[in-house]
Model the fold of this input.
Amino acid sequence: MDRIAQYLLAGLISIVALSQFVQVVTRYFLQVPVMGLEESILYPTLWLYILGAVNASREDTHIRANVLEIFLKTRRQHTILAIVGELISLVVGLWLLYWAWDFTSYAWRVWKESPTLYIPTFYSDVALMIGIILMMIYTVVHLSRHVRKLSVGSQK
Done:
């Protein structure tokens, strides 16, 4: 799974970078802009953004401001704080998932298309729903790991 995520993210960032390079060369050097290139770059860019957040959730490397950890002395207190943080993340994430479902069902029902290339925008809109589902799965995994760690630590 790690390898797939690495290749997918590397492929998406390569597509975006190469497309931007082509856009710069054709627009500024050749004075011939490629019609619809910005529009087509939007799709891999959005997926890259969402899957990057999923990757941070998978690796548990989100940026955090854990000010409370300064005041906590024991490993048990740190674990309890991590459990509280994961529970809050789960509640907020499930709330966002509810709204993402509404948005995705709206996007499916309306089936809008991009203005120039007529690419269905559903293919970019669904990224939010898939991303939040994956982040919630990883949040549950991290939560269960912290709970296990707390229960093993209390048995000693």
Remarks:
- The mean pLDDT is 93.
- The chain has four helices and no strands.
- Residues 13 and 29 are 23 Å apart (CA to CA).
